[in-house]
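ok so i was messing around last nite and threw this chain in just to see what happens. nothing serious, just curious
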Amino acid sequence: MTRNGGQLLVECLMNLGASKSFGVPGESYLAVLDALHDTEGKLDFVLCRNEGGAAFMAAAYGKLTGSPGICMVTRGPGATNASIGIHTAMQDSAPMLVFVGQVGTDMKGREAFQELDYRAVFGSMAKWAVEIDEVSRIPEIISRAWTMAVSGRPGPVVIALPEDMLTSLTETAPISGPADIAEPAPSQRATDVTLALLSEAARPVILLGGCNWSASGRAAMQAFAEASDIPVLAAFRYQDQFDNFSGVYAGEAGVGMPPHVKRIIGAADVVLAVNVRFGEMTTDGYTLFDVPEAKQKIVHVHASSDEIGKIYRPELGIIAGPNAFSAVLEPIDGDWAEWREACRADFEISLKAPEQPSPVDMARVTEHLRAVLPDDAILTNGAGNFAVWPNKFYLFGPNAKLLAPQSGAMGYGLPAAIAAKVAHPERRVVCFAGDGDFQMNCQELATAAQAGAAPIVLIVNNGIYGTIRAHQERHYPARVSGTDMISPDFAALARAYGFHGERVEKTADFAAAFERALASDTGAVLDLNVSPEALTPRVTLSQMREAALKAKAD
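result:
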């Protein structure tokens, strides 16, 4: 059968298991768009309003589902707009394929209209950047890109598609399906040494992260930790990978790290680090472990050999996937009950945020959400001080999910919420966004409306770029510059896009407003009147937790 390159590409993606794609159309890949004309209900194209939003959606889709999120953008400006989502997917270790239109092969190297050297631009930002110059190689390269995106440390792959290659005809057959790549498992010796190190520890800790956990892998890790009575910490923004209601869970090692988490890591003598890459936030700026030889004995488990020993020399490095590793762990006996109970008690104290100096108290809002949201809710957020509420004060059970960027990218929350509703239309999705964060991608409300995705968006509106203002007031007091914002009427804007829109002026009004949001079939935006005083240097998260610990001691 004769096909053009666009048709062959789309058939390969469908055979590999892709069912959703996100993008902005462009003349550089018209042949692909034409092939998508006949795939509705099999491989849907979610039409986005900006390539950055599309790339965020694909990154979030990959993080949520474990299957590569598919993003399609045009050459030059389309690709550079999408770069924020590519960078985010890389730092999140989320599988993603980004298809970028390219100038014709006969024009390359002339700085033709919108030409980019994609290998040079994305070579350090993605796991792999490749260009397909020969139509017959589409199945080969797409198969490799898919496998690379999901294996080892998952991440984004960028594939450039020259326009004339996509219109060329070929009789090459599409790839028949994905390769069955077995997750690497630990050797018996590695398992034995791990268990021996933990058994000999006085204060062991499990630190876990990553988005490529299976339900069985999470259950196995939880069963091991609970039976062995070992406290568990989550790496930055991966607290949804372990049941927060478990008696062994002790908190998140992330930005704005709670004092008790720092104390736990500092006091630990053995740290079992599973599927983490020891990023800056999880290590509190690389201060919680000495570089390169930590005083704690580290057992580092990761499917990618590139991560083992990248920053810290482990006592034992194990190249294994998180699920295969967890499956072979057998419970061990140790005298850690007092240690584990203290870790858990400090975590429970940390959940009790004091009253906030704000018309809408986000502490009470978050408490309400914990009470009314279903156990399989999906929460999303972008970047800003507001993210402490879903990240530090919400409890994620075994079915709940968090989509939040390790890259600290503003504007991620709304596209992530749309992707979550596209993937799981039956689940409740709530996006937390600051007023500045929301305006990075608020036009994607039109994408949500067109796709039939209906998340609830909570805008924590304090009229400033809050995180930057906090740093500014700390380092340059009384010299505010460039952080005050004048914003539109967010409720009216939401209604213009077909959403339910409402301004919430005070805490007492939130519960009823949220009920109306839940009842909206088209999604909702609630504009929350939050004072700039809330969670600024005057009332920092660390101070809140220290006050709670002091109250406990008193």
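not much to say yet. The first helix runs from residue 5 to 16.
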